[in-house]
Amino acid sequence: MTRQRISALTSLRFFAAALIVFDHATADRHGWIREIPYYQGVTFFFVLSGFILTYSYPVLPEKKDVLNFWLARFARIWPAYFVSLVWAIVLVPGWLTILATPYGAFRALLSTAALQAWIPQMDYFFYPNAVGWSLSVEAFFYLLFPFLIRELKTGRYWMLLLCCIPTCLVLVTATASNLVLYAKSTTDVDIDGLVYIFPLTRLPEFMIGMVAALSLRQPADRRSRPVIATFIEVMAVAAVLAQYLLTPTWYETGPLSHVFPASICLWLERSGSAPLYALLISVIAREQGILSRLLRFRPLVLGGEISYALYLLHQPLIWWIWAHADLFGAIPQFVRKVLFTVTILLISYIVCVAIERPARRRIIRLFHIK
After folding, report:
1. If you count DSSP H runs as helices and E runs as strands, how many of each does the chain have, helices first?
2. Which residue among 31, 145, 266, 321 is buried most deeply as judged by most CB within 10 Å?
3. Integer distance in angstroms from the first to the last C-alpha of the chain?
């Protein structure tokens, strides 16, 4: 039995997805607009995933509950994920040609099974839909969740430290191997592939979200005054926004680069904000202040509901637009941005309503274990 959905957190998903969409849509820009770490939206999703799953599935007492949990996760992510793979192959020039080769077929098979992030080479984890690597990481989290929640519910918080060991081993390996930060070849292993993409390295973020959910009481149990709750919400948002000032140059070429090796600097840059996101999620989840109540506004909640499809589908469309730039040369840049925004939101809504939701209901109805 799952708990009632927290609408304010659903809305936050939309803002996280929008950050990532903006990051990819402005990849050809330079200056301060490119220095903001929009990609931390992925970190937010990993923390939120641990939080929501722990909130929704506080116990999985029997084997059938575990199997039904895995079924529910598969039904939730795979239909739209599969659509995104096909969408990418259709829109991205050259992907279909690669698919026809044995090498490409193997890459496609890994991606279909959401295993591509386990091979830290860009040829694998970015094929055919680049953002699909994060679903590979999520699938790993889902596999572990029943075992993790069992340990954490018994008060064994040392599991969080235990789950940091693989992350430390990956960081040590990346440092000891003298890997470059970003490889020039798509077939080389680099620090970015091991630190940002590899599932073991991202596990602490998921665990932090789980611990944050376990510390959350039901909103009705301990209520704060609206003014105090609003102040806490504003401070949590301000803390998250303030850390955006720590741009990649602060980590990769700034003060931290003189203290830590490149692997640790990159991990701090990409994943170090997880505790702040856990704080923000925990505060907003109580839905006691003005900000969290505003986030319950239905259009924002709808944005959160389509955010998964938005996240999956936006990048292949961006690549297609860049590959066919001559078709849009006569259209003013502002109009192109508006058209892109309207188009991707509409497509995301259609996929969510016509494919994602019906497929999820049908899969659960057919295979749910009673």
Report:
1. 21, 0
2. 266
3. 12
Query: What does the radius of gyration of the chain's CA atoms come to, in whole angstroms?
Result: 21
CB atoms under 10 Å from CB of 246, counted, come to 17
User: What is the token pair recorded at 214?
Assistant: 């376990």
Residues 104, 106, 109, 110, CA torsion sign: negative
The pairs formed by 215-221 with CB atoms below 8 angstroms and a separation of 24 or more are 215/282, 216/55, 216/282, 216/285, 216/286, 219/285, 219/286, 219/287, 219/288
Burial of 57 (0-12, 13-18, 19+ CB in 10 A): buried
Per-residue pLDDT tens digits for 258-301: 788 888 988 988 898 999 999 999 999 998 999 999 999 999 99
Phi, psi of 218 (to 5 degrees): -60, 135
Q: What is the pTM of this model?
A: 0.93
Is the torsion defined by CA of 353, 22, 18, 113 positive or negative?
A: positive
